[in-house]
Amino acid sequence: MQPGQLDHWSEYWASGQLTSLPADFAGNYDGEIAAFWETQFQGVPEGGKVLDLCTGNGAIALLAAGYFLAQQREASVTAVDAAKISLESMARRHPGREAEIAGVTFIDQSPVETLALPDAEYDLVTSQYGIEYCDWAPAAAQAARLLRPGGRLALVCHAASSDIVATMAQEAGDYEVLASLGLLKGLRRFLAGNLSFSRLRKLLQASRDRLTPAYRATRAPLFAYVMKTLEGLLTMNETQLRARRIELAAFVRQLELGEVRLNDMLRVNRAIHETPEWYRVFEAAGLRLLDSHEILFRGKHRSGHAYRFERPDSD
Ligand SMILES: C[S@@+](CC[C@H](N)C(=O)[O-])C[C@H]1O[C@@H](n2cnc3c(N)ncnc32)[C@H](O)[C@@H]1O
């Protein structure tokens, strides 16, 4: 993995979000998703070890730590991601989670495929919207290697049937509308000194005028965010705007990386769509599929597929 390849995730986690679906989960995952995970944690023996792969800001690892705390049970939780993880920002944004955070050992900037944790160490390996982002075969081999014989791998993964895919496709369309305005290009040119203030102002006004009906028609959060920023920028004179260069550059970068992140999620969803039996890769790595089912969040939102595998007692 190249340095900077996961900047779109590192910067996202630096914003302090706890899950990769902030529009649906203001705090941590709840409902049917949390219930699925709780059932998996119940099976971990006293003094057992849990490993969460592609953890992000630790959503599933924190659910595990919270569960063991509430049950007053001893178990260790380790959480791994290839991106930079930002516990300080997450803790600031979600106060009251100190005990859960203290219950997790985070290992960031560590791709699953080359993770050097010991063999046969973990009772439960977990991953949510995570392991499918890795190179499938080596990641599956790692999961099998890290599990102790009899240990379980539990996954909640993107699925071709998921409603999340439709939302992502819609958001990709919103980014296309944004690109058609030439707004980010214009802001980049202004920041580089290649566009005058008066030309930029015209561009900001034209962008706002075009986004207003698009927002009314779609209520897209992306348009709401951009329009709010445009309104603020349009109240500024040249001196004020130039004094806000750093914020302006951060706004541009946030939108650029947001699109890269969305495309990353779409890439993974497309790969799963093209290879619906992709999860067989875990069987090829020596694990036994126990069961799988669709996750219906709040009884109706198709939010992906859950899988449970076991490492056979004798390989
Ligand atoms: C969609 S996010 C999910 C994060 C978290 N599990 C959640 O449900 O909120 C996918 C995560 O996978 C991580 N990731 C992608 N490729 C990886 C790899 N090869 N090894 C480890 N982590 C990886 C990304 O950095 C990102 O944090």
Write the layout of secondary structure elements.
Blueprint: H1 7-14, H2 31-42, E1 48-53, H3 59-70, E2 75-80, H4 87-93, H5 98-102, E3 104-107, E4 122-128, H6 136-146, E5 147-157, H7 163-181, H8 183-191, H9 197-218, H10 221-234, H11 238-243, H12 245-274, H13 280-284, E6 288-297, E7 301-310
Parallel strand pairs: 1-2, 1-4, 2-3, 4-5
Antiparallel strand pairs: 5-7, 6-7
Helix pairs in contact: 1-12, 2-3, 7-12, 8-9, 8-12, 9-10
This protein binds S-adenosylmethionine.
Account of the 3D structure:
The structure is a single chain. This protein is α/β, with parallel strands linked by helices. The chain has 2 domains: 189 residues, Rossmann fold (3-Layer(aba) Sandwich), CATH 3.40.50.150; 103 residues. It has 13 helices and 7 strands. The protein has a 7-stranded mixed beta sheet with strand order 3-2-1-4-5-7-6. Helix 1 crosses helix 12, helix 8 runs antiparallel to helix 9 and helix 9 runs antiparallel to helix 10. The longest helix has 30 residues. The relative contact order is 0.14. S-adenosylmethionine binds next to helix 3.
